Amino acid sequence: MKLDIKALALTAGLLWGGAVLLVSIGNMMWPPYGGAFLKFAASIYPGYQPAGTMSSAIIGTLYGLVDGAIGGAIFAWLYNRFTA
User: Fold this and answer.
1) Residue 54: other Cβ atoms inside 10 A
2) 53 is in which domain, residue-wise?
3) The whole model's pTM is what?
């Protein structure tokens, strides 16, 4: 069985970007919520600061979408190479 690289990239990007968005929104509503997760994301994504604002949530979400898509594509590609 082969994995569809585009489908897995899209799925992983949406899941990771959605996770960053939900934690960012939760942090805006309840400030201590997800603070460690957002600081971790800030340590990986250049220019992202977990400021608790909508603009920082959007920036983090965009980074998460791209990062998740790249990770999903690499995972699917490696899986297909090892199962061949």
Assistant:
1) 11
2) 5-83
3) 0.91
